[in-house]
Amino acid sequence: MKDASLPQLRTFLRIVERGSLSAAAKDLGTTQPTVSRQLQDLETTYGAALLIRTTRSLRVTDAGRMVYEQARLVVQSDDILRERLMGDDAQVEGRIRIAAPSGFGAFVIAPFCGRFVERYSRVELQLCLSDGRSDLISEGIDVAVRIGQLGDSSLFARPLVALEEILVGHPRWSSRPIARPVDLLTLPWVAFSGLSDGDEVVFERNAHKQKITVMPRFRIDQINGHREALLAGAGIGLIHRYAVDTDIREGRLVQLLPDWQRPEWPVNAMFPVRNPAYRLQAWCAELKNELARIPGTKNAGMFRPV
Protein backbone atom coordinates (compact mmCIF):
# COMPACT_ATOMS: atom_id res chain seq x y z
CA MET A 1 0.00 0.00 0.00
CA LYS A 2 1.36 3.41 -0.95
CA ASP A 3 1.83 6.00 1.78
CA ALA A 4 -0.28 9.12 1.75
CA SER A 5 1.61 12.11 0.38
CA LEU A 6 1.80 15.53 2.01
CA PRO A 7 0.07 17.22 -0.98
CA GLN A 8 -2.81 14.74 -0.67
CA LEU A 9 -3.19 15.52 3.02
CA ARG A 10 -3.09 19.27 2.38
CA THR A 11 -5.74 18.88 -0.30
CA PHE A 12 -7.96 16.82 1.99
CA LEU A 13 -7.68 19.42 4.76
CA ARG A 14 -8.67 22.18 2.39
CA ILE A 15 -11.66 20.19 1.04
CA VAL A 16 -13.01 19.63 4.55
CA GLU A 17 -12.40 23.21 5.67
CA ARG A 18 -13.89 24.79 2.54
CA GLY A 19 -16.78 22.34 2.25
CA SER A 20 -16.42 21.60 -1.45
CA LEU A 21 -13.94 20.32 -4.01
CA SER A 22 -14.33 23.36 -6.26
CA ALA A 23 -13.59 25.82 -3.44
CA ALA A 24 -10.57 23.76 -2.38
CA ALA A 25 -9.28 23.70 -5.96
CA LYS A 26 -9.62 27.47 -6.21
CA ASP A 27 -7.72 27.99 -2.95
CA LEU A 28 -4.96 25.61 -4.02
CA GLY A 29 -4.63 27.10 -7.50
CA THR A 30 -5.46 23.86 -9.28
CA THR A 31 -8.40 22.18 -11.02
CA GLN A 32 -11.32 20.30 -9.53
CA PRO A 33 -10.41 17.05 -11.37
CA THR A 34 -6.94 17.21 -9.80
CA VAL A 35 -8.42 17.68 -6.33
CA SER A 36 -10.89 14.84 -6.94
CA ARG A 37 -8.09 12.53 -8.07
CA GLN A 38 -6.00 13.31 -4.97
CA LEU A 39 -9.00 12.57 -2.77
CA GLN A 40 -9.61 9.25 -4.54
CA ASP A 41 -5.93 8.31 -4.16
CA LEU A 42 -6.09 9.12 -0.45
CA GLU A 43 -9.22 7.00 0.01
CA THR A 44 -7.51 4.14 -1.84
CA THR A 45 -4.47 4.47 0.42
CA TYR A 46 -6.55 4.19 3.60
CA GLY A 47 -9.08 1.75 2.18
CA ALA A 48 -12.05 3.79 3.37
CA ALA A 49 -14.42 6.47 2.18
CA LEU A 50 -13.38 9.77 3.76
CA LEU A 51 -16.21 11.91 2.43
CA ILE A 52 -19.80 11.33 1.37
CA ARG A 53 -20.66 13.63 -1.51
CA THR A 54 -24.02 14.53 -3.00
CA THR A 55 -24.91 17.21 -5.52
CA ARG A 56 -25.69 19.61 -2.67
CA SER A 57 -23.53 18.67 0.29
CA LEU A 58 -20.35 17.08 1.54
CA ARG A 59 -20.14 15.11 4.79
CA VAL A 60 -17.04 13.81 6.55
CA THR A 61 -17.20 10.13 7.53
CA ASP A 62 -15.86 8.76 10.81
CA ALA A 63 -12.75 7.57 8.96
CA GLY A 64 -12.44 10.98 7.32
CA ARG A 65 -12.60 12.69 10.70
CA MET A 66 -9.75 10.52 11.99
CA VAL A 67 -7.65 11.26 8.91
CA TYR A 68 -8.44 14.97 9.19
CA GLU A 69 -7.30 15.21 12.81
CA GLN A 70 -4.01 13.45 12.12
CA ALA A 71 -3.45 15.26 8.81
CA ARG A 72 -3.66 18.62 10.60
CA LEU A 73 -0.85 17.57 12.91
CA VAL A 74 1.29 16.29 10.04
CA VAL A 75 0.81 19.40 7.90
CA GLN A 76 1.36 21.74 10.85
CA SER A 77 4.58 19.92 11.75
CA ASP A 78 5.77 20.32 8.17
CA ASP A 79 4.94 24.04 8.25
CA ILE A 80 6.88 24.50 11.48
CA LEU A 81 9.90 22.64 10.10
CA ARG A 82 9.92 24.70 6.90
CA GLU A 83 9.64 27.97 8.80
CA ARG A 84 12.39 27.10 11.27
CA LEU A 85 14.72 26.07 8.46
CA MET A 86 14.09 29.47 6.91
CA GLY A 87 15.27 31.10 10.15
CA ASP A 88 15.11 34.89 10.18
CA ASP A 89 13.83 34.89 6.61
CA ALA A 90 10.57 33.21 7.60
CA GLN A 91 7.61 34.85 5.90
CA VAL A 92 4.28 35.51 7.55
CA GLU A 93 2.07 33.90 4.94
CA GLY A 94 -0.71 31.38 4.54
CA ARG A 95 -4.22 30.94 5.92
CA ILE A 96 -5.20 31.48 9.57
CA ARG A 97 -8.64 30.41 10.76
CA ILE A 98 -9.56 32.18 14.01
CA ALA A 99 -12.41 31.70 16.49
CA ALA A 100 -13.37 34.47 18.94
CA PRO A 101 -16.32 35.51 21.12
CA SER A 102 -18.80 37.60 19.13
CA GLY A 103 -18.64 40.80 21.19
CA PHE A 104 -14.89 40.87 21.82
CA GLY A 105 -14.35 39.70 18.26
CA ALA A 106 -16.42 42.54 16.78
CA PHE A 107 -15.01 45.24 19.08
CA VAL A 108 -11.36 44.21 19.06
CA ILE A 109 -10.33 41.20 16.96
CA ALA A 110 -11.97 42.17 13.65
CA PRO A 111 -10.36 45.65 13.44
CA PHE A 112 -7.01 44.16 14.40
CA CYS A 113 -7.32 41.46 11.72
CA GLY A 114 -8.03 44.14 9.13
CA ARG A 115 -4.77 45.88 9.97
CA PHE A 116 -2.91 42.56 10.07
CA VAL A 117 -3.86 41.53 6.53
CA GLU A 118 -3.05 45.03 5.31
CA ARG A 119 0.45 44.66 6.72
CA TYR A 120 0.98 41.05 5.60
CA SER A 121 -0.29 40.79 2.04
CA ARG A 122 0.40 37.04 1.80
CA VAL A 123 -1.86 36.14 4.73
CA GLU A 124 -5.49 35.04 4.44
CA LEU A 125 -7.57 35.34 7.62
CA GLN A 126 -10.90 33.68 8.37
CA LEU A 127 -12.56 35.03 11.53
CA CYS A 128 -15.38 32.98 13.06
CA LEU A 129 -17.37 34.86 15.72
CA SER A 130 -19.45 32.82 18.15
CA ASP A 131 -20.10 32.74 21.88
CA GLY A 132 -20.01 28.94 21.87
CA ARG A 133 -16.84 26.96 22.49
CA SER A 134 -15.47 25.88 19.11
CA ASP A 135 -14.01 22.42 18.61
CA LEU A 136 -10.70 23.46 17.12
CA ILE A 137 -9.92 20.11 15.55
CA SER A 138 -13.26 19.30 13.93
CA GLU A 139 -13.87 22.90 12.81
CA GLY A 140 -10.39 23.44 11.41
CA ILE A 141 -9.60 26.33 13.78
CA ASP A 142 -5.93 27.32 13.99
CA VAL A 143 -6.28 29.59 17.03
CA ALA A 144 -9.14 30.48 19.35
CA VAL A 145 -9.31 33.58 21.55
CA ARG A 146 -11.05 32.70 24.80
CA ILE A 147 -12.07 34.84 27.77
CA GLY A 148 -12.39 33.45 31.28
CA GLN A 149 -10.86 30.74 33.39
CA LEU A 150 -9.59 27.73 31.46
CA GLY A 151 -11.03 24.32 32.20
CA ASP A 152 -9.43 20.97 31.57
CA SER A 153 -8.44 20.82 27.93
CA SER A 154 -6.07 19.16 25.51
CA LEU A 155 -5.44 22.59 23.97
CA PHE A 156 -2.35 24.71 24.54
CA ALA A 157 -2.84 28.21 25.99
CA ARG A 158 -0.80 31.38 25.60
CA PRO A 159 -1.81 34.30 27.84
CA LEU A 160 -2.66 37.56 26.08
CA VAL A 161 -4.06 40.06 28.60
CA ALA A 162 -6.46 40.37 31.52
CA LEU A 163 -9.65 42.39 31.10
CA GLU A 164 -10.95 44.79 33.74
CA GLU A 165 -14.64 44.41 34.57
CA ILE A 166 -16.45 47.45 35.97
CA LEU A 167 -19.90 48.36 37.23
CA VAL A 168 -21.71 50.97 35.13
CA GLY A 169 -25.12 52.46 34.64
CA HIS A 170 -27.04 55.31 33.08
CA PRO A 171 -26.21 58.69 34.73
CA ARG A 172 -29.64 58.75 36.39
CA TRP A 173 -28.61 55.85 38.62
CA SER A 174 -25.65 57.81 40.01
CA SER A 175 -28.03 60.12 41.88
CA ARG A 176 -28.75 57.26 44.30
CA PRO A 177 -26.60 57.05 47.47
CA ILE A 178 -24.14 54.27 46.58
CA ALA A 179 -21.12 53.84 48.87
CA ARG A 180 -20.91 50.07 49.38
CA PRO A 181 -21.81 47.00 47.33
CA VAL A 182 -24.81 46.35 49.58
CA ASP A 183 -26.30 49.65 48.39
CA LEU A 184 -26.64 48.13 44.92
CA LEU A 185 -29.37 45.74 46.03
CA THR A 186 -32.05 48.42 45.62
CA LEU A 187 -31.16 48.99 41.95
CA PRO A 188 -32.28 46.98 38.89
CA TRP A 189 -29.60 44.82 37.30
CA VAL A 190 -28.93 43.92 33.68
CA ALA A 191 -26.82 40.75 33.61
CA PHE A 192 -24.50 39.66 30.82
CA SER A 193 -24.94 35.90 30.88
CA GLY A 194 -22.21 35.33 28.29
CA LEU A 195 -19.46 35.67 30.90
CA SER A 196 -21.44 35.77 34.12
CA ASP A 197 -20.09 34.05 37.22
CA GLY A 198 -23.63 33.72 38.54
CA ASP A 199 -25.85 35.98 40.61
CA GLU A 200 -23.33 36.21 43.45
CA VAL A 201 -21.15 39.25 42.82
CA VAL A 202 -17.90 39.83 44.71
CA PHE A 203 -16.25 43.24 45.09
CA GLU A 204 -12.92 43.98 46.75
CA ARG A 205 -11.36 47.11 48.26
CA ASN A 206 -8.15 47.27 50.28
CA ALA A 207 -8.09 43.45 50.60
CA HIS A 208 -11.63 43.52 52.01
CA LYS A 209 -14.16 41.47 50.04
CA GLN A 210 -17.89 41.94 50.03
CA LYS A 211 -20.29 39.56 48.31
CA ILE A 212 -23.86 40.35 47.34
CA THR A 213 -26.56 38.28 45.68
CA VAL A 214 -28.38 40.14 42.92
CA MET A 215 -31.60 39.30 41.11
CA PRO A 216 -31.31 40.59 37.52
CA ARG A 217 -34.57 41.51 35.85
CA PHE A 218 -32.95 41.41 32.43
CA ARG A 219 -30.36 38.93 31.14
CA ILE A 220 -28.63 39.06 27.79
CA ASP A 221 -25.95 36.85 26.25
CA GLN A 222 -24.41 39.29 23.76
CA ILE A 223 -22.13 42.12 24.85
CA ASN A 224 -23.30 44.61 22.20
CA GLY A 225 -26.90 44.17 23.33
CA HIS A 226 -25.80 44.35 26.96
CA ARG A 227 -24.15 47.71 26.34
CA GLU A 228 -27.24 49.03 24.53
CA ALA A 229 -29.48 47.99 27.43
CA LEU A 230 -27.23 49.82 29.88
CA LEU A 231 -27.22 52.93 27.68
CA ALA A 232 -31.02 52.81 27.58
CA GLY A 233 -31.14 52.92 31.38
CA ALA A 234 -32.59 49.44 31.86
CA GLY A 235 -30.43 48.99 34.95
CA ILE A 236 -26.86 48.73 36.18
CA GLY A 237 -24.49 45.98 35.15
CA LEU A 238 -20.97 44.58 35.03
CA ILE A 239 -19.17 44.93 31.72
CA HIS A 240 -15.61 44.98 30.42
CA ARG A 241 -14.18 48.49 30.35
CA TYR A 242 -13.04 48.29 26.71
CA ALA A 243 -16.69 48.06 25.61
CA VAL A 244 -17.85 51.22 27.42
CA ASP A 245 -14.74 53.35 27.92
CA THR A 246 -15.84 55.88 25.28
CA ASP A 247 -19.38 55.96 26.71
CA ILE A 248 -17.99 56.80 30.15
CA ARG A 249 -15.67 59.51 28.85
CA GLU A 250 -18.51 61.10 26.87
CA GLY A 251 -20.99 60.94 29.76
CA ARG A 252 -23.45 58.39 28.40
CA LEU A 253 -22.61 55.97 31.22
CA VAL A 254 -21.07 56.40 34.66
CA GLN A 255 -18.89 54.02 36.61
CA LEU A 256 -20.37 53.05 39.97
CA LEU A 257 -18.29 52.11 43.02
CA PRO A 258 -15.01 52.97 41.24
CA ASP A 259 -13.01 52.28 44.42
CA TRP A 260 -14.19 48.67 44.51
CA GLN A 261 -12.56 46.16 42.16
CA ARG A 262 -13.85 43.08 40.43
CA PRO A 263 -11.74 40.00 39.54
CA GLU A 264 -10.06 40.35 36.16
CA TRP A 265 -10.93 38.13 33.21
CA PRO A 266 -7.97 36.35 31.59
CA VAL A 267 -7.77 36.28 27.80
CA ASN A 268 -5.86 33.41 26.19
CA ALA A 269 -4.95 32.28 22.70
CA MET A 270 -5.69 28.56 22.41
CA PHE A 271 -3.90 26.29 19.94
CA PRO A 272 -4.50 22.63 19.05
CA VAL A 273 -0.72 21.99 18.97
CA ARG A 274 2.10 22.89 21.35
CA ASN A 275 4.27 24.62 18.74
CA PRO A 276 2.06 26.54 16.29
CA ALA A 277 3.33 27.64 12.89
CA TYR A 278 5.27 30.89 12.66
CA ARG A 279 2.40 32.81 11.05
CA LEU A 280 0.19 31.93 14.05
CA GLN A 281 2.86 33.01 16.49
CA ALA A 282 3.29 36.29 14.62
CA TRP A 283 -0.47 36.91 14.66
CA CYS A 284 -0.62 36.13 18.37
CA ALA A 285 2.36 38.37 19.17
CA GLU A 286 0.91 41.37 17.36
CA LEU A 287 -2.52 40.80 18.90
CA LYS A 288 -1.03 40.70 22.40
CA ASN A 289 0.82 43.95 21.84
CA GLU A 290 -2.30 45.60 20.40
CA LEU A 291 -4.49 44.45 23.29
CA ALA A 292 -2.09 46.07 25.75
CA ARG A 293 -3.09 49.47 24.34
CA ILE A 294 -6.83 48.95 24.84
CA PRO A 295 -8.44 50.62 27.90
CA GLY A 296 -9.03 48.25 30.76
CA THR A 297 -6.39 45.64 29.91
CA LYS A 298 -3.33 44.49 31.80
CA ASN A 299 -0.43 43.00 29.91
CA ALA A 300 2.21 40.76 31.47
CA GLY A 301 4.80 41.78 28.89
CA MET A 302 5.76 41.59 25.25
CA PHE A 303 5.10 38.34 23.40
CA ARG A 304 7.54 37.31 20.70
CA PRO A 305 7.43 34.45 18.17
CA VAL A 306 9.92 31.70 19.00
UniProtKB/TrEMBL annotation:
Gene3D superfamilies given in the database record: 3.40.190.290, Winged helix-like DNA-binding domain superfamily/Winged helix DNA-binding domain (1.10.10.10)
InterPro entries in UniProt: LysR-type_TF_proteobact-type (IPR058163), LysR_HTH_N (IPR000847), LysR_subst-bd (IPR005119), WH-like_DNA-bd_sf (IPR036388), WH_DNA-bd_sf (IPR036390)
A UniProt-annotated Pfam family: HTH_1
Keywords: DNA-binding, Transcription, Transcription regulation
GO molecular function, one term: DNA-binding transcription factor activity
Domain HTH lysR-type: 1-61
Gene Ontology terms describing biological process: DNA-templated transcription
The family this protein is said to belong to: Belongs to the LysR transcriptional regulatory family.
PANTHER family per record: HTH-TYPE TRANSCRIPTIONAL REGULATOR, TRANSCRIPTIONAL REGULATOR-RELATED
Protein name: HTH-type transcriptional regulator DmlR
